[in-house]
Write a structure and sequence with these properties.
The protein has 111 residues and is mainly α. The protein is built from four helices and two strands; from the N terminus they run H-H-H-E-E-H. A two-stranded antiparallel sheet has the order 1-2. The mean pLDDT is 88.
Amino acid sequence: IIDWHSPRVLALVVLILGLSTLDAVLTLLLISQGASEMNPVMALFVPDRLGWFAAIKLGLTSLGAMVLVACARMKVFRLFPGELLMYLVVGCYIALIVYELLLLENPPPAL
């Protein structure tokens, strides 16, 4: 059985993957300036295994995106369309990237 989705869902998935990639790049920039990775799973791979860091980050994001696509036409908790979750993820990524850009522009003082 093939499930067809609207081009809007494809655009959201591409946007999520692009924002995740940008998040990874900004995270590595911040780490190079003395920050530390707060995600304990991803912290295992920085700064020594950057290839694994990128592969695992993109792989986990891709798996999450596939789940979101599978739920895109469902009613989540019988309340709202699953596609709305994709917009929520995009919004969270945008907020995270704005935060990271602010940190790059105005790093906190060293302890």
